[in-house]
Amino acid sequence: MQSDCSLVLDDDKNQLLWTSPTNGLGDNCFANLQTDGNLVIHNDRNEVVWSSNTAGDSVRRTMSDITMATLVLLSAALLLGLLLPSSMANNILYAGDTLNTSQSLTQGGYTFIMQSDCNLVLDDDQNQALWTSATNGLGDNCFANLQTDGNLVINNDKNEVVWSTNTAGEEDQYILFLHHDGHINIYKPIWTRPNNDDNSTNRKIAMVTNN
């Protein structure tokens, strides 16, 4: 959020990738991601000078045993995670990525691991299971894959599907995110800048919703 009231996305060479058209529209401007999913820029008179026009439902709901958020504000940490490669984001699984046997996501004291017994398990910092896929013994060398349709699927060594979140939807750039409080969410973007209309590289801004 620049001092000229522009909200700007720069790359690692300080080259401008995207900017809000708000230059000179006020002083001491600030950007607020509202609980309805709308990103809004206010000036010093508290006037709205720009928004992403993504307002929606702010209620959270649970689907099966994995929490799915209808509209969620992601912190700056998630924004950084979205712009980092998968190998540098230990609490994020991107669409198309796989957790193979013994691989895991970690955040704080929580671990989301694909065990050798074919169970996908969420453990706390005491190694106590908070949630399990209940797929123990259903195969060897099992792996969990976040599909590009938003469905998290466990396959065994015969490539049989032994469990899924049943969250398949439209093809998109979904992510699975392990939060610091132990909740696991699957998200998809509702607002992307820059996009193809900007004639620039497609990168996600951290505003997401479930399918």
UniProtKB/TrEMBL annotation:
Key word Transmembrane present in the record?
A: yes
GO BP terms, alphabetized: response to other organism
Q: Which domain of life is it from?
A: Eukaryota
Q: Which CDD domains match?
A: B_lectin
Xref: SMART domains: B_lectin
Q: Where are the transmembrane segments?
A: 66-84
Q: Enumerate the InterPro entries for this protein.
A: Bulb-type_lectin_dom, Bulb-type_lectin_dom_sf
Keyword Hydrolase in record: no
- Please provide the record's keywords in A-Z order: Membrane, Transmembrane, Transmembrane helix
> Where does the record place the Bulb-type lectin domain?
1-54, 90-199
Protein name, per record: Bulb-type lectin domain-containing protein
